[in-house]
Specification:
Chain B: It catalyses: [E2 ubiquitin-conjugating enzyme]-S-ubiquitinyl-L-cysteine + [acceptor protein]-L-lysine = [E2 ubiquitin-conjugating enzyme]-L-cysteine + [acceptor protein]-N(6)-ubiquitinyl-L-lysine. Chain B: It is found in: Nucleus. The complex is a heterodimer of chains A (149) and B (488). Chain A has 149 residues and is an alpha+beta fold. Chain A is built from 4 helices and 4 strands. In chain A, a hairpin with a 6-residue loop joins strand 1 (23-27) and strand 2. Among the domains of chain B are: 64-118; 220-252, no CATH class; 265-485, Four Helix Bundle (Hemerythrin (Met), subunit A) (Up-down Bundle), CATH 1.20.120. Chain B has helices at 12-30, 61-79, 83-92, 97-106, 108-114, 157-169, 189-195, 199-216, 265-277, 279-282, 349-393, 399-420, 422-427, 433-457, 464-485, and strands spanning 57-59, 131-133, 140-142, 146-148, 154-156, 220-222, 231-233, 241-243, 250-252, 289-291, 298-300, 307-309, 316-318. In chain B, strand 2 and strand 3 form a beta hairpin. The relative contact order of chain B is 0.10. The chains are: A alpha+beta (149), B mainly alpha (488). Chain A binds chain B through residues 5-7, 9-10, 61, 63-65, 96-99, 103, and chain B through 135-139, 155, 159, 162-163, 165-167, 170, 177, 179-183. The complex binds zinc ion (5 copies).
């Protein structure tokens, strides 16, 4: 891990020693800035029981700029688009260098519990969510069954 | 303009009369934008007669810097605060001096909190020891490596430096907040400049920050002209016409886009977005040739005028609708009016979508066609200039004698320009009596502009008095339309 900033080393150690419940984040063997992430779908959400794979990358400027995070598992969610990109304020203009990988992943987990169709990234999904929420939740459950279990 | 221009030598007396008359007209046309001073009637100045009148000044970068500094100094002395704080307050509150003074004098402490300059509650960190850990870089460092903003969140100097570097490289120079999560205290300029280790980034900051100041200042706008660094200053911040004296760009003060009266800024943005989105659907329109509706010979349009005469059968027709030009007289001009299907509400969704597209294409086609005509008339203007040059060289009249032709071409451009921008306006208008009035005036302007264009293209066989009369009518139609509908 030569040349790796102390901050990243510290965060990685803590992620391994005190893992967050429902979340795993493992650094890649060849690249300590690249993490293989899984997030378990939160209870009582349409994503319950699903295991969602994500990738997280710490750019050169980290922690002065936000990590880059993307869903690899297909997911039906108004704030996550087809390419797995996530609409989350702390990953964009609300990023603070005091935030950590841990806090980012917790926020993503929270986003699965509370989709926000008023700030959409996937427009069709957000429209579906707003016009018929129970139908949209059914679709999200079906997608979870199909892709995340 | 291909044939010989009519010589002015034959009739000297009438020439004299006409030049005198011309001087007055020229006042009306060319002096329209700058004759607010020579009016004696102070209560009712002439500028109120001109719907496009707009008072503004063009500034150089140095002028702007001086102007902004004056504001800072003014606020310093009024509020007895240091220049950094004054500048910060001005930036946060879009340079609204009166508002800042009023609020600051009422309750300075609260105003600074509201302005995100001081915290409502100061963060109490553990007192710094000999060695402390910076929460951003996780390094243990001596206490003099640390600093904080008014909020009290402590980070090491190197982290502040890196943080500002990343912000500046991303082009962010204003609204930079404390590094702590959920702390919205703004970073003062002097703190930032002290923290930056790289001089080249300090320069970049100064440059970007200046752009930002101008862009957020309600009274200032950069000239959008290529490579032009002029700044326009106007007290009145509406969508009005600005003519940059340096690069000759004409633009709207309100939005910085191409000038677009009578359409307002929000509508033109909507229209341009729509045009960009629908560019594929509208592509087929760009035809330079059409067939004569009577003899079917292929005709290429090489002038701006939409009153086209078939080279073979001499049929006069309208380039837009291919209809008989005689039906385009000012009393019966239907070509600019879109006739909606009155029963459309009862039609199928599919039919409604088709109708919506048809309507858009109708307006777009006319808007686009005038833009093209403007380009073609630009060529006419340069041809006229060449012709005049030749005339003057062979002593057939002087530049002054031929000036009226150039004036006519310039006026035509102005009228057609306004006409072009009547189409987005009409497209978004509700179907009301007001729309009927608008379409009536638009049709009138449409007819007179084409008459003027026709006459200018045939200047050699058009009587000068006739042409000047046509100029007068066209400009009056344009003024009338703007007076009634230019209201932002
Ligand atoms: Zn640090
Ligand atoms: Zn703070
Ligand atoms: Zn300019
Ligand atoms: Zn505008
Ligand atoms: Zn027509």
């Amino acid at each position: 891990m030569a040349g790796l900033p102390r901050r990243i080393i510290k965060e990685t150690q803590r992620l391994m020693q005190e893992p967050v419940s429902g979340i795993t984040a493992l650094p890649d063997e060849n690249n300590a800035r690249y993490f293989h992430v899984t997030v378990i779908g939160p209870k009582e959400s349409p994503y319950e029981n699903g295991t969602f794979k994500l990738e997280l990358f710490l750019p050169e400027e980290y922690p002065m700029s936000a990590p880059k995070v993307r869903f690899l598992t297909k997911i039906y969610h108004p704030n996550i688009d087809k390419l797995g990109r996530i609409c989350l304020d702390i990953l964009k203009d609300k990023w603070s260098p005091a935030l950590q990988i841990r806090t980012v992943l917790l926020s993503i987990q929270a986003l699965l519990s509370a989709p926000n169709p008023d700030d959409p990234l996937a427009n069709e999904v957000a429209d579906a969510w707003k016009s018929d929420e129970s139908q949209a939740i059914e679709t999200a459950k079906a997608w979870t069954q199909k892709h995340a279990i | 303009m291909s044939a010989e221009m009519k010589s002015q030598d034959s009739d000297n007396d009438s020439d004299y009369d006409q030049s005198d008359h011309m001087d007055e007209d020229e006042e009306d046309f060319c002096g329209y934008y700058d004759n607010d001073t020579d009016d004696l009637d102070i209560d009712r100045p002439k500028k109120t007669d001109d719907p496009e009148y707009f008072e503004y000044e063009l500034l150089k970068v140095e002028d702007v810097e001086r102007l902004l500094n004056e504001d800072v100094e003014f606020l310093c002395s009024c509020l007895k605060v240091d220049p950094h704080l004054a500048k910060m307050l001005l930036q946060v509150h879009q340079w609204k001096k009166e508002f800042i003074m009023e609020r600051y004098k009422k309750d300075p402490a609260k105003f600074l909190v509201d302005s995100k300059i001081t915290p409502a509650v100061k963060y109490k960190s553990a007192p710094l020891g000999v060695q402390n850990t910076c929460s951003v870089c996780c390094r243990k460092l001596p206490s003099d490596y640390f600093c904080h903003l008014s909020c009290g969140h402590v980070f090491c100097r190197e982290c502040w430096d890196n943080y500002f570097q990343v912000q500046i490289l991303q082009g962010v120079t204003s609204g930079i907040e404390c590094m702590e999560n959920n702390c919205h205290i703004l970073v003062p300029e002097d703190f930032l400049c002290r923290s930056l280790s790289k001089p080249e980034l300090r320069d970049k900051y100064t440059k970007l920050s200046f752009l930002d100041l101008v862009n957020t200042h309600p009274q200032l706008r950069f000239c959008p002209g290529p490579n032009c660094s002029n700044v326009v200053r106007a007290k009145d911040t509406r969508s009005k016409k600005v003519d940059c004296a340096q690069c000759k760009t004409i633009f709207c003060f309100g939005c910085g886009m191409e000038y677009h009266a009578p359409t307002d800024c929000a509508t033109i943005r909507k229209w341009l977005t729509k045009c960009a989105d629908d560019s594929e659907t509208a592509n087929y329109i760009s035809a330079h040739t059409k067939d004569c509706p009577k003899c079917h010979v292929c005709i290429e349009k090489n002038g701006g005028c939409n009153h086209v005469q078939c080279t073979k059968c001499k049929n006069d027709f309208c380039w837009m609708c291919l209809g008989d030009w005689r039906t385009h007289g000012s009393e019966y001009y239907e070509c600019s009016r879109y006739k909606e299907n009155p029963n459309i509400a009862n039609e199928s969704v599919h039919a409604q979508a088709r109708e919506a597209l048809k309507k858009y294409l109708f307006y777009f086609e006319r808007y686009e066609n005038h833009a093209k005509s403007l380009k073609l008339e630009e060529q006419t203007l340069s041809k006229i200039t060449t012709r005049i040059q030749e005339k003057v060289m062979i002593n057939s009249g002087t530049w002054i004698d031929w000036q009226y032709l150039l004036d006519a071409a310039v006026l035509l451009k102005k009228c057609r320009y306004t006409l072009q921008y009547t189409y987005p306006y009409a497209y978004y208008m509700e179907k009301t009596a007001r729309k009927q009035l608008f379409e009536y005036q638009q049709a009138q302007l449409e007819a007179e502009v084409e008459n003027l264009s026709w006459k200018i293209e045939r200047a050699e066989i058009t009587d000068r008095g006739d042409l000047e009369n046509q100029m007068d009518i066209a400009e009056k139609r344009r003024q009338t339309l703007l007076k009634d509908f230019l209201e932002f």
